[in-house]
Amino acid sequence: MPHRATTALLQIGVVAVALAALPYRVFELDRYFVPKELVLHGAAVLLAVPLLARRREGRPDAADALLALFLAWSAASALFATNYWLAQRALGVTASSLILFWSARRIGNAGGHRPILVAAASATVVATTTGLAQAYGYESVFFSLNRAPGGTFGNRNFVAHVAAIGLPVLIYTVVTARTSAGALVGTLGAGAVAALLVLTRSRAAWLAVAASLGVALIALLASRQYWRGSATGGRLARIALTAVVAVVAVVVLPNTLNWRSDSPYLDSALRVADYSTGSGRGRVAQYMNSLDMTTANPVFGVGPGNWPVEYVEFAPAADRSLADDGMTANPWPSSDWVAYASERGPVAALALAGAFAVLFSSAFRRWSHLRGADEVLAKVALAATITATAVVSAFDAVLLLATPAFLAWIVIGATSGIGLTSGIGAAGGEPARSRWWKPAMILASLLVLAAVARGTTQLAAIGIVAEGGAGTAWVDAARWDPGSYRIALRAAEVQASRRRCTSARAHATRARSLFPHAAAPRRVLRRCS
């Protein structure tokens, strides 16, 4: 596949993954997650072809090796999971993300980073626009009413994470724009992102933006000799002024958001680092209980995606992360890093952290060997994007989800590939000397193929329930998605209510195998005993 086709696929995919959503409100989370994951996997399965087909590759560097270790260890961890369906789904997101990273890195090394970064910035603005539209009264069946303004993400925190991760690359596209019109459009987009970040009241996103802008400022000052004399300084000043105006406007102007506080934005700002009360205290308790889970499973963890299956065994009854019936309130912990350590083991978490550290340090090296201000500023965007991703993922699920993972990995891949002399993306290069590269790509490709198949059947099951209404639709859907706890349980309850106990027991047994600590399947089994 030529570089142009690979670039086009990444460009289309990053915008599509931001918009993908289903109108079926009976599946309030999966109507966003499933289509977005399917876009992620669909792009990855097509991009795996050229990565596998190339006969000559550059030598993989330390970041590539650490990411391959992260993938391999995660796959080994899945063998010990209680719920293999959740493990397969989580592994699919990881494998697809890494294929996108390696593809974007190869394009970045060939000098094609800019189109990918412009598309990533555009996707950030598109995602932001859907959230702003909901905040100011636009109604759509694709929007959720529970966690507004989430737009096509269904949750205000999710869209805020994307905005925080995409802001550095959006700033890059403005300061390097080749026309004044392009710079103006990008500046307005940055103002929209600033407005949305305030409206969402996402403290994790606020911390990520503060940290990433701090890193970007240091990198800009250190590299000023490479971009001095360009329009960078003036455009940065206009971005800052636009952001200030946007923030003042959203605080003053009325919107349709129903906050309980009279001063919601000030309250969130004052509590941005408060972890002694409220949700902050709940996060600390959750992290400590998850650490106990990690200690009890120190090698491979409890399996990818299996945190909600096992967490109830390590949390007290009053834990805020627990809902009713022996289930967690959310299907993931409030931190990617806590999830990776508890689900895949400390080795996997350290491998990913090490890869981030290597990629971050590469942003500050060999500036004199780069071709002009554009590439130097792209390296600044690399450092800021890694910082934003690492910080926001420390307080929420980010890389576990399709859209922020798609956005973060292609930006990091494209920018880290610039000036690369010995990485996966090195054009021409010597034949790969690392024997693990081909097996790693084959493993990733197989995982992605499985994820595409699973995502397709999940989509079919959701459609069957949504279009078929109550009753036997749940039973039919269970045949398409045997890994869905919710569908299996609902099918069991429907069959039990109709005194079809043989079928009810089968579905309840399946639900219990997926979440052994849940109480609801046991109640159905007692009813039909």
What's the number of domains? 2
Portion of residues in beta strands equals under 5%
Radius of gyration: 23 Å
Please report the number of helical segments.
Answer: 22
The share of residues in helices is 55-70%
Enumerate the spans where pLDDT stays under 50 for 5 or more consecutive residues: 427-432
Question: Residue-averaged pLDDT, rounded?
Answer: 90
Annotation, overall tally of beta strands: 0
Shape: globular
Notes on the structure:
By secondary structure, the chain is mostly helical. It has two domains: 3-276 and 329-446, no CATH class; 469-527, no CATH class. It is built from 22 helices and no strands. Helix 5 (113-135) packs antiparallel against helix 17 (402-416) and helix 21 (501-514) runs antiparallel to helix 22 (520-527). The protein is globular and about 80 Å long. The model is unreliable at 427-432 (pLDDT under 50).
What descriptors fit this protein?
mainly alpha, 2 domains, globular, 529 residues
Brief characterization of the structure:
With 529 residues, the protein is mainly alpha-helical.
